[in-house]
Amino acid sequence: MTDVSVVMPARNAAATIVEALNSLRDQAPLAEIIVIDDGSTDDTASRIAALNDDRIRILPGPQSGISAALNAGFLAARHPLVARCDADDLYLPGRLATQVDWLSRHPDHVAVSGGFLSLDGRGRILARLAAEGPAREVTADLRSGHAVTHLCTWLIRREALLKTGGARSWFVTAEDVDLQFRLSFLGPVWHLPDPVYGYRLHDGSITHGRRAAQLTFYDIAARDFAHERGRTGTDALEQGCPPDLPDFPDEDSPRNTAARQMAGHLVSQAWRCHLNGQRGTGLRLMVRALAQDPWTWGHWRGLVVMTAKSLCPGRS
Fold it and tell me: What does the alpha-carbon distance between residue 15 and residue 13 come to, in Å, rounded to a whole number?
């Protein structure tokens, strides 16, 4: 079985990193975990050291953003397959064995991806994401600028990863989405929908420190670059002429809070349950969504509509 290097960027992750690492240490094909300690000032390093696992390497990070931290890990990886795990998230049991086996039987594919679970700060499941439908090739989706799942569900051939040059530092966020798109132009990508990753939502994460306008700008840029690459074989950033950065709203503009994102995941899962006939579960999830984000009118409207449909047999 082919060995795997897992890259884990970390900064002040003492509260969660042991749980994250333990979810990796039980994965059969794991050969090494490369933790990029990107300027932690808490007990992150000492908690890693206390595990006394010689498969874990701690490397100092460049402290130049998430792309630079990821690239430091990618370059340090010693094994033919590479995956990412964030220091506040989890691998689900059996994940690497399944993905390694699939890639070993499909040498023409550059990567395989999976579904994931979103979790709240206490580890409770909020939603199953990218976990619907059959196993399928998603290369065309990615080349057209449609991200199917989270990069942390991917297992990638190291050769292809290095050929891309890794994450691009221009991206303050959405660097992982951009990397997915660029990898798809190097060869086919397959999606196995079973969940393989636990993505924890909390306000201490990097994503939830961003302004909504900033997240939207970089997500759109990643899609636009994918469209350009599909048409011309390259993109504006690669050519050294990316779009001008806008003036993002000031501190009074809304942040992408964990509560708001949790509510969104709960609403999506509630409607999936409702449409699959699990109407009581759907209603309970909708109520949980409102507890997270009671100020969004659409959530209240959704609860009213779902309740009405549940009280009317025969209606979808």
Answer: 6
Quick check: is 300 in a domain?
Answer: yes
What is the total count of domains within the chain?
Answer: 2
Q: How is residue 47 annotated by DSSP? A: H
Number of helical H runs and strand E runs in the chain = 11, 10
CA dihedral 252, 255, 257, 260 (to 10 degrees): 90
Position 208 scores a pLDDT of 44
Mark whether 164 and 78 lie in a shared domain: yes
Residues with Cβ within 8 Å of residue 287, at least 6 apart in sequence? 303
> Do strands 30-37 and 4-10 pair parallel, antiparallel, or not at all (unpaired)?
parallel
Q: What is the CATH number of the domain that holds 162?
A: 3.90.550.10
Q: Judge whether residue 209 has pLDDT over 60.
A: no
Q: What is the pLDDT of residues 253-312, one digit of tens each?
A: 555 577 777 667 667 776 677 777 877 877 777 777 777 778 787 777 877 777 877 777
For 4-63, how does the pLDDT look when each residue is reduced to its tens digit (9 = 90+)? 999 999 999 999 999 999 999 999 999 999 999 999 999 999 999 999 999 999 999 999
Residues 6+ apart with CB under 8 A from 240: none
Report the DSSP pairing between strands 189-200 and 111-119: parallel
Nearest Cα residue to 129 out of 147, 109, 106, 102 = 147
**Predicted local distance difference test score (pLDDT) of residue 313:** 57
Q: What does the alpha-carbon distance between residue 204 and residue 27 come to, in Å, rounded to a whole number?
A: 27
Could you tell me the residue range of the domain that residue 273 belongs to?
Answer: 258-310
Same domain, 15 and 104: yes
Query: Is 219 part of any domain?
Result: no
Residues 143, 129: Cα–Cα separation, whole Å: 20
Is pTM beyond 0.90 here?
no
Residue 286 CA to residue 108 CA, distance in Å, equals: 43
Task: State whether residue 1 is helix, strand or coil.
Answer: coil
